[in-house]
Amino acid sequence: MSAGFPDRQSDVISVGRGIEPPDEFTCVELTWVEGKIEYWIRFGHAAGTQVIDHNRRIVFFPPNTVFAFIRWAANDYGTVTSRIDILRAVAPGAAYQTLPSVRSGAEILLKIHGWPKVEEVLLHVDRIEAIGIDPAETDPDHWRHVAHWMRAGEAPRAYTTARHRAWLRRREIVP
Fold this sequence. Notes:
Elements: E1 14-15, E2 26-33, E3 37-43, E4 48-53, E5 56-61, E6 66-75, E7 78-88, E8 97-99, E9 102-113, H1 115-130, H2 140-151, H3 161-173
Parallel strand pairs: 1-4
Antiparallel strand pairs: 2-3, 2-5, 2-9, 3-6, 4-5, 6-7, 7-9, 8-9
């Protein structure tokens, strides 16, 4: 990992400069300039990373991988933007939405901006991890549920081990 980036992806394989990830992968450009621009992945299983320079790298995700992309920026007067997007990488030819720093795009499961709401989502992610579930393996419908309830100004339901077991069974039946 490049210095300055939070080390959340210890299992990522590095690729050399000039080597492009496969076309079917979703690429996310991360930038880290301490206290100014901080784009990072909160969770998700990247297939690899390409270091561009000390402050920038590209991580890439295979199709159907769920990941959380956080974008935060500030100027001399404070925070300019704070957002979290929970995305699912899509297969070639599938429909997708575009986002800054995400190439070609991804399916948006959750899109939240403003630090208080972003912090609520991060706490929700922490609670999922606290019960021993990888947030990247969480039912994608749950992230949609969280987004809808938060937009309505209500607290989303907690993700439970029972719901997770149901999701895993459903995934076995309908891949």
